[in-house]
Amino acid sequence: MATSKLQALWNHPAGPKTIHFWAPTFKWGISIANIADFAKPPEKLSYPQQIAVTCTGVIWSRYSMVINPKNWNLFSVNVAMAGTGIYQLARKIKHDYATEAEPAVANE
Question: Does 108 score more than 60 pLDDT?
Fold first, then answer.
């Protein structure tokens, strides 16, 4: 049973013998790097970078469900990219626009 499943994966049109497997697999590095940036202070985040990550995730998630063969690895990595990008954008927007300015301490 396990052998037949491995053989089916190996021979799949989006399996390890094709670029359709390896491109999304390496794309996980972008999502992992974005997750690592959760520890960064919001003022160090970049709007253009996070917008690009979010848009790429949203657009390619949709596209990965339209193309043949269905590529679930491509779909999942792009959902992760969209999710991490949206989260980072929300952190940045909250920091830039929703936090109140801290009152200055009077020096006596």
Answer: no
